[in-house]
Amino acid sequence: MASIGIFVGLVVVVTILSKSHADRNVYPSAGVLFVHVLEREYFKGEFPPYPKAGDSSNDPITFNTNLKGYPDRPGWLRYIQRTPHSDGVLYGSPTAEHVGKPTIIEITAYNKRTFETARHNLVINIMSTEEFPLPYQAEFFIKNMNVEEMLASEVLGDFLGAVKNVWQPERLNAINITSALDRGGRVPLPINDLKEGVYVMVGADVQFSSCLREVETPQNQLRCSQEMEPVISCDKKFRAQFHIDWCKISLVDITKVVPVRSNRPDPGIGVLPDIGEYNPPSESLKSRDYFADFLITLAVPSAVALVLFIILAYSMCCRREGVQKRNMQTPDIQLVHHSSIQKSTKELRSMSKNREISWPLSTLPVFHPVSGEVVPPIHPDNYETTSMPLMQTQTNLQNQIQIPQQQISGKWYS
Predict the structure, then answer these.
(1) CA separation for the pair 90, 92 (Å, rounded)
(2) Whole-number pLDDT of residue 266
(3) What's the protein's topology in the membrane (predicted)?
């Protein structure tokens, strides 16, 4: 096992790495930023080699991290990985509540080329130190950085160096790093290489410098209220690499902070009592046989359906009286009367079928005397025949017009 000490500015994170399949052990301190990089190169040896030599680095690998026995990570631990071709990063700031409780994180690597997985355990042993947390804490908002860029050791070291030149403390360490997206920030537009922004909290053992307190002056407070940049004398020491939003800086002296203890009221009706953490059932529980329940679920409805089917079949088939029995129970006079009605009905229907009515000549098609073509009838099929004259020689007197004739005497007569 190899022990590697990572020194970032004045941030010390001790990590014990192992190239074997054994668990990894890390020893962060409570109140100090913890950063652990999930290197893709470490897991590539557990996957089949790439067909082409030298192209193994192109395997897309993603990571899934969770607390052992639980679906998610602890509340203080975060994880980020931008693309399957970049390393993943676990980061966070453990508190004194987690001291002495080993935290086992299950790390599962997914190779999206071969669809294979590799799993390792990361054992986080949180140590307690009397030096941390430091009493004076300042939180900066850096607008031109993403969280994975800020977690890089060289970038974080440069930022702590700039803060040390401005603050001049004896001890300085990074306490926590939070993405602006975790604080309700919006995802930036993919133009002009915009960044999402990151909050960096640092702690020191001396009072805040005059430069850091310049943001509390009435003039700068007014400029911040008008969405203007305040005038800070030490901003030029950060401007070369870090664009800080001084209106969002937070200065906290934890020695003067009064802890607020809220007395929880008694739970009322309908509120479940606080029974602590969830304990899953033991794996030694006896398995239950559901075969009897399955039979009951099917047998009872099937039996009821069978009984109903038998009753219906008996009523429809075995209880039929028939035509002969019906006739025997009917008086003869009714049968004779019914038979005579049927005979009369059949006779009328047969007589109606034998009727032949000659259609008027005006409705029959005729031939054209010259061309020989069939000429349609004078009246269409939908012509109302109720007003048609019985004799084709009858004429409509209302539409008849007589031509006047001239006599010898020269008088007109109609």
Answers:
(1) 7
(2) 66
(3) Single-pass membrane protein
Angle at 97 between CA 95 and CA 102, to 5 degrees: 90
Phi, then psi, of 34 in degrees rounded to 5 = -110, 130
* pLDDT higher than threshold 80 for residue 55: no
Residue tagged 């399955």 (tokens):
294
The set of residues, in sequence order, having a beta carbon less than 8 Å from that of 344 and lying 6+ positions away, is none
- Quick one: which of 66, 55, 64 has its CA closest to 113? 55
List the one residue out of 178, 187, 190 whose CA is nearest residue 80: 178
Domain residue extents for the chain: 2-124, 136-253
Residue 36 and residue 81 in contact, taking contact as beta carbons nearer than 8 Å: no
Task: Band the pLDDT of 354: cuts 50, 70, 90.
Answer: confident
Q: Is the pLDDT of residue 54 over 60?
A: no
Entry field: residues in the chain: 414
Return the CATH number of the domain spanning residue range 2-124.
2.60.40
What 8-state DSSP symbol labels residue 378?
Answer: S
Work out the pLDDT band at 262, boundaries 50, 70, 90: low
Phi/psi for 264 (5° steps) reads: -75, 130
Take residue 276 and report the two structure tokens written for it: 């602590």
